[in-house]
């Protein structure tokens, strides 16, 4: 009888602890992130001390190459990264968390001076609109 009781107690304890961990983690996901932008790549920023992936867009990776219409390669990822860094690096942002990705980054909609950064990057041809 003792074995069943200790199993049941252990199971309930794990369930209770898991529920508390979920409750404690929820505010971190739901909270706004504010801070100065440091561009990691075209769709990923460090905002203050938090790594943020912009929600709803996909930009070339920093080391990605693309092909010109004539087939010659060019460093499109480095170019996009430089463009995004010139526009947003060092600026103050306010990001509203939407999710976390498989790498543990906060996925968020970010604004600077009231303008949506992801929307601007897509409008300017620096990123693609992206839906999972």
TrEMBL record:
Coiled coil: none annotated. Residues 36-132 form the TNase-like domain. Residues 1-30 form the signal peptide. It comes from the Bacteria. The keyword Signal applies. Keywords: Signal. PROSITE patterns: TNASE_3. InterPro entries: SNase_OB-fold_sf (IPR035437), Staphylococal_nuclease_OB-fold (IPR016071). Pfam families: SNase. This is Thermonuclease family protein.
